[in-house]
Amino acid sequence: MEHKYISGGGRGLCSKGWHTNHYAQLNVFDYMADIPNNPTATDIVEVQFKNTRKGYYHNSNGLELKKGDIVAVEGNPGHDIGTVTMTGALAALQAKKANLRSEEEIKRIYRIAKDCDLEQFEVAKSREHQTMIESRQIAKDLGLEMKIGDVEYQGDGNKAIFYYIADGRVDFRQLIKVLADVFHIRVEMKQIGARQEAGRIGGFGPCGRELCCSTWMKNFTSVGTAAARFQNLSLNPQKLAGQCAKLKCCMNYEVDQYVEAFRKLPNRDIVLCTQEGEWFFFKADTLAGMVSYSSDKHFAANITTITAERAAEIIAMNKRGENPVSLSINTTSKKEGPVDLATQEDLSRFDAQLASKKKKKKKNRHNGKNNTQN
């Protein structure tokens, strides 16, 4: 079977670590793929199946596998078809990170997929959509409060995984019996959340990029409204919710930096006292460390912006019974700003030299013409 690889790989990049296939979700770059003896460092191989499902298998037969190879692996029962995404030392580290309970959970790779395996796999995949539609109707007829979001057939077509969403506990024992009788397969039910469903469906976020849950995220952490408050985001559910109707996962990316910077800001309830009067907290730029104060408690008036260090200094002075003259530091020295390199030299300094050269060249041409006439 022919596999396509990105040729070259660029300077300093491992071309073996890249591979283009239809399993785009959770694609990884194996930067150790071209290191000598890396494939033989361990017999553990990472294999990816439909969407976000991955597994780790022993290459017990000693096959020469590389990223992008389509292989037949041990199933329960039968066999499944997947794509090799990682081999060598990195695969062993990823298997360790997956927290597999025992060595017995790591099954075997049978062989590189043959044409008959791929034909059987394509037939099984073609049944998935219709099976999902019919299974939804069956669950509805049984009165189950659940939604079947996706169906994934095993490579040999003898087993199918039904991914479903439910708010509470569902007794689907009768559903399993009906599905097994209707489709003549072994049934496995797997509950997923709204975030996992969005990752399986895919899409684009407001940032213009593919959803994180459908490209690289495997583990989901809870997102609270506190993350939005720390980042001074508007508590608008329509703007804070993603396509899964849950709070956006990206709000957790920078919240730690905001929390650390927020600790350096003064308490919002503290009133600053100066000889000019009292100043009340108005707003803060958390990352810049700047705090704005208003001379009126209820509306914006005489807004003055100072640094968090200056605010802490005034608070300390107020505790000692001292009041500074004003919020800002009185100084006659001008604060140095960024230097514009273009103003350090005259931009027209080359014009005089160019004019001089043209004049000299014209004079030489004129003298040469006169000598020719003489």
Tell me what the structure shows.
The chain is of the alpha+beta class and 374 residues long. Among the domains are: 15-112, no CATH class; 123-196, GMP Synthetase, Chain A, domain 3 (2-Layer Sandwich), CATH 3.30.300.20; 227-259, no CATH class; 272-319, no CATH class. Helices cover 29% and strands 19% of the residues. The protein has helices at residues 89-97, 115-126, 128-141, 173-183, 194-201, 225-230, 237-240, 255-262, 308-319, 349-373; strands at residues 44-48, 54-58, 70-74, 79-87, 107-112, 147-153, 159-165, 186-191, 272-274, 277-285, 290-294, 304-307. The protein has a 5-stranded mixed barrel. A 4-stranded antiparallel sheet has the order 9-10-11-12, with helices on one face. α4 (173-183) links the parallel β7 (159-165) and β8. The longest helix is centred in the C-terminal third of the chain and has 25 residues, at 349-373. The chain is flat.
Structural class comes to alpha+beta
Span from first to last CA?
Answer: 85 Å
Q: Radius of gyration, rounded?
A: 34 Å
Write the element-wise H/E pattern from the N-terminal end onward. EEEEHEHHEEHEHHHHEEEEHH
Low-confidence runs (pLDDT<50, min 5 residues)? 1-13, 331-335
**Helical content (DSSP H or I, runs of 4+):** 25-40%
Classify the beta-strand content into a percent band: 15-25%
- Assembly type: single chain
Number of helices: 10
Placed side by side, the strands forming the largest sheet appear as: 1-2-5-3-4
Query: How many β-strands, per DSSP?
Result: 12
Output mean pLDDT: 82
Shape annotation: flat
**In this structure, how is the largest beta sheet organized?**
5 strands, mixed, barrel
